[in-house]
Specification:
about 280 residues; Hypothetical Protein Tm841, Chain: A,domain 3; 4-stranded mixed sheet; 11 helices; binds myristic acid; DegV family protein; lipid binding
Amino acid sequence: MSNTAIVTDSTAYLPSDQIEQSGITVVPLTVSFGDTSYQEEIDMSTASFYEMLKEVNDFPTTSQPSIGRFMEVFEELSKEYESIITIHLSSGISGTYQTAITAGEEVDGVEVYAFDSEISCAPQGYYALEAAKMAYEGETVDTILNRLEELKRHTRAYFIVDDLNHLHRGGRLNGAQALVGSLLQIKPILHFKDKLIVPFEKVRTSKKAWNRVFELFEEDAGTGASIRATVIHANRPEQAENIRSKLADAYPNADIDIGYFGPVIGTHLGEGGLGISWCKF
Ligand code: MYR
């Protein structure tokens, strides 16, 4: 029996069966269309989000969970657990991590340890699942946090969007870079550096961008190391499957699945974004 509960937020986009099996508690972020707000994965599925995007003129906005929501979750878990590890999307792109820390300080009877994934989506999910497995096996908080730091060092993620203006509008990409990108019609390969989204390399076409990402994948997967990877898409399941099957055929040492950019991340990347993350386990 574990003394440590694991919490993450909805932007890990963990499949519901994995949430159930691992016992992870998920705190939702919110997407709003006009005056109507939806907790993603609860009030709004990813499929209905991309449908709705086509129908509206105004772009949606997103918000982090409230401090009250985190406190409710932590108070409930404090009845059963001595400690909580709460794992969140990068503190450089959302206030969620900081709010979780503040909520943890307000709640008595349980120690709350916040972990900044410095990324989001599938890699955040890898960390949450690994933490849940280790907590179940009775590992201490320190051991789990050290392991998460180690996984972070072995994680890479790159993504390519159709239109940089979504990231620019949401303030998640440096303005000058977005302008240059749109004007020149380039498809920069994006990644996280020091918790922020920055271009990794500026490439002119999506084909060239993906060929470069495949080279980067080869650097790790080509060593024969045991790799867990996820091709992540914003409503582009067929393209994601093409990439997945190509890599799965070439690298039997890589366990590759498909994930998605849900409503909150999809708001900032725009429909058509595609990425891949991997981690050497
Ligand atoms: C909030 O309102 O607090 C949420 C803000 C979310 C910003 C998302 C920016 C794009 C992240 C891309 C992640 C790609 C991971 C592979």
